[in-house]
Design goal:
Elements lengths: L2 H5 E9 L2 E8 L8 E10 L1 H9 L7 E4 L4 E4 L8 E2 L4 E9 L9 E4 L6 E4 L7 E2 L15 H17 L14 E5 L3 H12 L4 E6 L2 H9 L3 E4 L4 H8 L1 E3 L2 E2 L1 E6 L4 H10 E9 L15 H4 L3 E4 L15 H23 E6 L3 H9 L7 E5 L8
Parallel strand pairs: 11-12, 11-16, 12-13, 16-17, 17-18, 19-20
Antiparallel strand pairs: 1-2, 1-6, 3-7, 3-9, 3-20, 4-5, 7-8, 8-10, 14-15
Helix pairs in contact: 2-10, 3-4, 3-9
Length: 374
Amino acid sequence: MTEHSQQIARVLSVEAPGEVVWAEEKLPEVPEGGFQVETLYSGVSAGTELTYVKGTNPYLSASWDRALGLFLPGEPGIGYPVRGIGYMQVGRVVASRTRAVEEGARVAMAYGHRTGYVADPMADRFVVLPGDLDDLLGIYVAHMGPICANGLLHAAHDLHGPAVQDLGDGVRGRRVVVTGAGVVGLLVALFAETRGAAEVVVVDETPERLSIAEALGLGTMTAEQDPAVELKRRWRHAPDDRGADVVFQCRGQARALALALKLLRPQGTVVDLAFYTGGAGEVRLGEEFHHNGLAIRCAQIGRVPRGLAHAWDRERLSHETIGLLRERGGLLRRHLVTDMVGFAQAPDFLRDLAARRRHTVQAVLCGDVEDEGG
């Protein structure tokens, strides 16, 4: 690396709705106990990141009061420019002042779309990638994989409470539906399938996404097939007791949540991993939700189920993710990663995604930092 690239990094900046650019960012000196990385791969989480490009993220119009657990209208919690969106980074360590990681190591982190970064030993979490793991798949290790594993953990807690022993305790031997065949849905479905679910069916509206699910070896059904009727005819537990044991809702659309409720057997649970930025008029709580005594559990990475934090921290969820990647990594690399985008093309790419001029499942930013003009 040149002296310039050691001191200056570029950070992806959303200047205003629809306006995405690279901005320069001066890197601090590496602190005692810290290290510096140059970015090898930076995965795009389109569902979350595009809310900033579109201007629909709730933080742009309200502030989050952590103590009250409320969004308070008025002063925005975040204003433009929004810099460093993204949470799926893999970097090569180029300087280290800690015994925890050596120069040359590959680490998974969540520091946003940047060409380089200096880790704060008191604030930044990192996972050193094992040598037998494809570096590109490391984008899932620090944050995205744990998000998906935490969904299974919520299903296990729903069934066993604090007695959960294994990530598969909520799906093993059970019939599982995943609504939404994006990255989150497909990883959740693979977690369920590898943890012993009796059957896993992925439901989505997009044929291209369902074809990826099929290539990953998962059962599929299009949302246009009236899957609730078909699956409830197939999955009979007892008279007047039909449907999925658990549904993982992984698409940020109200109609997907409404469908998830329809798919459940009586007294079943939807484990919801989706991010909704609009209303939910299609979620008709007076119908299946009320008559079948259903439950919705929100599973977000900010917390694991009550009573499990001591045994199921983020490190353990990352370890579970590495296990899944070792088992299914070849298929994921082949079928889930749909776009490799050079750093220089990233602003245009995100603008096109926000304007629906193109479609992606998993896009990964990459390239030679020096060639990109870092």
